[in-house]
Amino acid sequence: MHYEHLPISALKTWVKLNDVQFNLVTTAETSNGKGHGLVSIVEVLGDNQVLLRIPPHLVLSLENVWIYAKSDRHLEEVLQAVGEYAYTARGAILIFLLMQITHNASTGSDKIGVSNPLAEYVKFLPLHVPLPTFWMDEEQSLAVGTTLEPALKTKLKSLDREFTHLHDSTSSIGWCQQVWWSAGTGGLSFEDWKRVDAMYRSRALDLPGTGHAMVPCTDMANHASGDATTALYDTDSDGNAVLVLRDGKTLKPGDEISITYGDDKGACEMLFSYGFIEDSMDSARELFLDLEIPNDDPLKLAKKAVSKSPPGFKLFERDGSIDWEGDFVWLICVNEEDGLDFQLLQMLDGGKELKVLWKDNEILDVTKLQSLLEKEHLWDVFRLRAVATLQGRVEQQLVALQKGASRVEDSMQYSALGPSSYQAIVRLRELEGKLLLQAYDHFEAKKTELFQSTLVQSYLGAASAEDELLEDEDFT
Fold first, then answer.
1. Of 40, 16, 50, 231, which is closest to residue 120 (Cα–Cα)?
2. What predicted TM-score, i.e. pTM, was given to this entire model?
3. What's the CA dihedral at 172, 175, 181, 186 to 10 degrees?
4. Which tens digit of pLDDT belongs to each residue from 325-380?
5. Which of 47, 125, 297, 328 sits at a 20 to 30 Å CA gap from 216?
6. How far apart are CA 411 and CA 419, in angstroms?
7. Helix, strand, coil shares of the chain as percentages rounded to 5?
């Protein structure tokens, strides 16, 4: 699809026409290679100084998309056609962005949609967002062994499902068939859908009082974490989106105004959603590793059916300490002989319901299993099983990461990735490798500690004696 693009120099006219207030700041090319950003014009002092004020109707949110649809029949047709998807912030905003691009590309009597301030603002957004979803297969292979690899595969499948749903839902609408889908006149492709996804993911904010939204001009502020963050986004008493100087911060002329995209976001999420890893990041911070229930577990199917948690665990580092969380792990670590059981109930309407039991008592919320295990006499044994499971999965990831290292070393000579993207994937591998090694050592120390438990020693001794007894049995 054809994209109209306007230079940032033309933004001043749009700002003036739409009553956007720039106070003591302007847009400019940054000195750190991040493209355009917001910089101060003069010295800015004082707490809670408002740097930007954006009227409520310019905030691209779920609510405002539907308000715009009241005066745009083409937009409303598509929103109604895709059903529930249009009642999510992501779905509504992606469709709105696509409609504005379509509006800008259409001409004359065939004009699609109606003119609005955000249709013009879309023209200022970068034509290329360097997210991994645009990498070719060759470049995606560089992520082998990192947590970006499964995340990227899952995301591309999800985008494909969304795009297919859009096609199937709107192909019966006359203008959609002609402008988007027709082999002769249609111009919409999967690449276009990836582009609006990238616009949204790289610019969406969790705006107080609104939720996930895109805020014009505020979304031009680049990221800096910790004390380097100079401004915060908020909503004032009149519903305006505002960018405010942080308490205790001072700006000199030419200083860049930065916001945080999330101080706790891990290296993988930063690269996945924004296309870069912050230079100051010295840790992967966190990563998610998937887990499989062993095939020899007789309760495998039942466990998968009742689990409400992602099948894996989050590993994270905070203030130099390693920790983890994941309710799914505890389902793997207990079985029928421990007290876990399932009952299949026949319902009055003919349906069936799977009930989870712990020592004959129903568990209404399976995510609370850990709290039940903590009260058990064998809690140290359950902890040891969990630690062994986690360490084994960490070791598996380390092996995969190491196998992929040679591919990265050999790829620079033919990779189509730009230097910044190549460096980012190399850094991701280094940071995740460092965190995995720390986690492996952490779990090894935990195992050693738990092996000292009298309870664990007694339990393992009894299990060993039982095994010897079975071996001595004469089964002839």
1. 16
2. 0.89
3. 160
4. 999 999 999 999 999 999 998 887 778 889 999 999 999 999 999 999 999 999 99
5. 47
6. 12
7. 50, 15, 35
